[in-house]
Amino acid sequence: MERLPALALADRARVLPGIPMPGVPALPMPEHVLDAVRHAAGRVRPRQSWGTPELRRAIAEHLGGQSGLAVDPDRELLVTHGAQQGMSVVLRALLATGDEVLVPAPTYFFDGMVRMAGARPVYVPGRPEHGWATDVDGLRGAVTPATRAILLCNPNNPTGHTPSRDELSAVLALASEHGLLVLADESYARYVHSGPGYAPQQLLRGEWPELVTVTSLSKNYAFTQWRIGYVHAPAHLAERVHRAFEWDAINVGDVPQAAACAVLSGPQDWLDVVFASFRQRRDQLCAALDAAGLPVVRPDSGIFVFPDLSVLGRRGRDLEDLLLRAGIPGVAGDAFQGPGTHARLLYGGAEADLAEAGKRLAALAG
């Protein structure tokens, strides 16, 4: 099995001088979070494989306040070691050997997780001229007797496309027609800057209830070092995922759960200012790409752009190496099951670093 593409690129980038282009904001933890961590580190509690009641209640209250969702914290929420592990466990719990999973592409690095579950990913490409929107007709044409699920990335990584409610509703209608699970990674919910706005798929569960959502708290609250997320699913599916999780990891530690609980329940001002700045940084990098003659669909969300770099005459690993030699880390599009002539570039760095990246991209484009 191949390595996770982003981590493999990061290892190659370490040996070359380059522009800092992080994918998450580097923020110091506020004092109320550190207080919660210190308190949790000083006590010992029985292990709770679903997650601490305090954190599950905080998640349920957050979902209710943010989206109006009524969530049973005791039966519908499972705390995991980040969204990556959450989705991996979901796939292994709910799929069987030989199942097929329809995946709109480009998309996140789900490939290895689906294959480890014994299933086969079937990619349905979107098109940049359509804003990378989900090709629902393409999904319909890809359904076979072996199809078991549709796997979404909402908002999408790497394109930044954020599906509208109508787009999600069309996907759920297809799932209902064929009795399919709809699995969604919603790790970039907080990173929406424009477009129709983020709509959690669970808002549409009245249209089709067989929905499983995986979310990264550490991504959405800028503390990825804690590796914490959760699975939100109806009780009959959540219980199956919970059993698989117990065999996989038993439980998440109390310290990261305490940090997540404090982040969810405490003040948000320390995050809001930084997240608000991402739209400006997106616009800065997109303007530089436009000026260099490098086509890009302006993303609705995320902390990345996905430009067409065909003019550079490289693709895949060769394109990555060309960018790295220019000091620009970028993952080629084929790693996301998209066109190898594209690359995901991050804009989480300082404005001066983004300006320098723009100059170097222009030089490469000639």
TrEMBL record:
Domain Aminotransferase class I/classII large: 48-355
Signal peptide boundaries: none
Keyword Magnesium: no
GO biological process, any: amino acid metabolic process
Cofactor: pyridoxal 5'-phosphate
Keywords: Aminotransferase, Pyridoxal phosphate, Transferase
GO MF annotation terms: pyridoxal phosphate binding; transaminase activity
Record carries keyword Transferase: yes
Family, per entry: Belongs to the class-I pyridoxal-phosphate-dependent aminotransferase family.
Classification via PANTHER family: ASPARTATE AMINOTRANSFERASE
Protein name (record): Aspartate aminotransferase/aminotransferase
